[in-house]
Amino acid sequence: MRRGNIIRFGLCFALTFVPAVLVGCGETDKRENIIVKGNVTVDGKAMGGVTLSFFSPGEKVAVGTVNTQDDGSYEIMFKAHAGEGNYKVTAKKMQAKPGTKTFDKGDGIDDYQLGIASGASGGSIHLLPEKYSSVDRTDLTAVLQKGQNDSKNFTIKTK
After folding, report:
1. Which domains does the chain have, with CATH numbers?
2. For residue 41, what are the β-bridge partners?
């Protein structure tokens, strides 16, 4: 094959098959995902800045992590290949210790990242009981199925 023919063949291949593949890259079918919405309250009050991590049944690695909004609401989506079933959920809220170097949210980081950044210098504290931050000890769970899962609310008690 001559060089010109190879280039034409490659161009024809690209123009024929690449668009066909890209057609399948549109909006993801919701049945292929697990979508979870809910609210978090701490001692009866909506709490923003709580980091929730979802662990599929029998796993020790989170399949999804989300931070709650100021009104305590959250929404997260992850692939359904994680499986349906009873998920364990951990909850963390970090705060810098007084006098520790801190960062501003305006720096483009959220509450969780602020806690990590402050914790790098040993200056962060957990605002929630430790049991909520461990996948082995948490009592927060959610039965999840493929598609939409609404009203998965979590009540955390500090007292």
Report:
1. 30-156 (2.60.40.10)
2. 46, 155
